[in-house]
Amino acid sequence: MMKAVRNYGIEDVRVEDIPKPIPKQGEALIRILYSGICCADLHIYKKGMFITYTPETMGHEFVGEIADPNGGSLTVGQLVVGDPRVPCLKCSACRTQGYQRCESLGFIGEVSQGCFTQYIAMPWEKLIPINRPEKLSHGALVEPLAVALHICVEAHVGKNDHVVVLGCGPIGLLTVAVAKQVFQAKTVTAVDIVDSRLQRAAQAGADFQLKDISQSSLSEFDIAVEAAGIGVTFQAGLDHLRPGGTLAMVGIFENPVSIQPNALIGKELRIIGCNTYTREDLQQAAEIIGKGTLSLDFVISRIISLDEAPEAFKALAGDHKNDLKILLQAH
Ligand SMILES: [Zn+2]
Ligand SMILES: [Zn+2]
């Protein structure tokens, strides 16, 4: 048996013992080391989004080591991350454009056993080997880092660009770091109403940290990233872009919002949706973290045991936003 953090419905997360998985043909068994609580897990917790049944072991961000290759090419002890996506493999996107656009894209932790536990069985082809980073826990950040890389690739962030990131949760902060440190944007402005998040944005490499975008000395941005999933930041993105600028949307909206869209027409803006990543983004994120070239401590607020996960969900869903990425240590 092994410990697992399971979702039983809205605001009902329990730690239970479940049977250790037995890998099927074509799957390896992975001993999970660290996993990360994602915004998507919070949407499940708060609103019951994405899931079709309960109970299920939650979680899709992890780093672990091969416990049983089960005939595959990876060796026991090899550090790996997994592509947690479960695409339908039938829709037009799955056939031609990439799983990130799959119309019924699912994730482990939603449609099958997730990683907030001690072992997981996954198909060989979903596993990506990663070099041991100095801080092993950073391996659990490969998946969200891939999301940030995908945003910057899709938005074509370049060296002359002034970028504004609206909302400094984990994805917003990782986007600040990638835009500035990997894509070398000219300036990156971070906007959030929480002081501690703005301090973290400075550590991530933001040139400017603001509580309100209208205080910016830059009147026009080339690229805005909406990473909050609320109407005010959606509107702020439209209103503060230069003509022909790009609004990249990545925050999931829990509720419908009302906006004034005329700036979109008047300035011929481009709006792009960013959903997860490509396999190449995931691969690049694994390389960056394996090399340890990007400092990432700013995104982790604490590392706790699986037993403490229900309390962590309560804290993350609550009003005071000083927690950021919480990692679960499985062993
Ligand atoms: Zn995630
Ligand atoms: Zn599909």
Q: For the report, how would you describe the main beta sheet?
A: 7 strands, mixed
- Residue share in helices? 25-40%
Count every helix, treating DSSP H or I runs of 4 or more residues as helices: 9
Distance N to C terminus: 14 Å
CATH class of the largest domain: Alpha Beta
Give the helix/strand class.
alpha/beta
Radius of gyration: 19 Å
Describe the protein.
It is built from nine helices and 18 strands. The protein is an alpha/beta fold and 331 residues long. α3 (142-154) packs across α4, α3 (142-154) crosses α8 (279-291) and α4 (170-182) packs parallel to α5 (195-204). The longest helix is centred in the middle third of the chain and has 13 residues, at 142-154. It is globular, with a radius of gyration of 19 Å. The chain starts with a strand and ends with a strand. The model has no long low-confidence stretch (mean pLDDT 96). One zinc ion binds at residues 38, 40, 60-61, 143-144.
How would you summarize this macromolecular structure in one to three sentences?
By secondary structure, the chain is an alpha/beta fold. 26% of the residues lie in helices and 28% in strands.
Topology, element by element:
Elements: E1 2-9, E2 12-18, E3 27-36, H1 39-47, E4 56-57, E5 61-68, E6 79-82, E7 85-86, H2 92-97, E8 106-107, E9 119-123, E10 127-129, H3 142-154, E11 162-166, H4 170-182, E12 187-191, H5 195-204, E13 208-210, E14 221-226, H6 231-239, E15 241-249, H7 262-266, E16 270-273, H8 279-291, E17 300-305, H9 309-317, E18 325-329
Parallel strand pairs: 11-12, 11-14, 12-13, 14-15, 15-16, 17-18
Antiparallel strand pairs: 1-2, 1-4, 3-5, 3-9, 3-18, 5-6, 6-10, 7-8
Helix pairs in contact: 3-4, 3-8, 4-5
The structure holds zinc ion (2 copies).
